[in-house]
Amino acid sequence: MKISRKSSLKPKALRSSHNSSLLPIFPMRINKFLAHKGHSTRRGADELIQKRWVTINGKMAVLGDKVGATDLVEVRNGKKAEDYLYYAFNKARGIATEKISESRDFFPVLSLDINAEGLIIVTNDRRIVDRLTNPLHTHMKEYLIKTLDPLRPNFKEKIEHGGWTVSIRNDKTFTLRVTDTGNTIREMCAKFFAEIESLTRTRILNIELGNMKVNERKEIKGEELAVFLKNLGL
Question: In the 3-class helix/strand/coil scheme, how is the chain assigned residue by residue?
Answer without folding.
Answer: CCCCCEEEECCCCCCCCCCHHHCCCCCEEHHHHHHHCCCCCHHHHHHHHHCCCEEECCEECCCCCEECCCCCEEEECCCCHHHCCEEEEEECCCCCHHHCCCCCCCEEECCCCCCCEEEEEEECCCHHHHHHHCCCCCCCEEEEEEECCCCCCCHHHHHHHCCCEEEECCCCEEEEEECCCCCCHHHHHHHCCCCEEEEEEEEECCEECCCCCCCCEEECCHHHHHHHHHHCCC
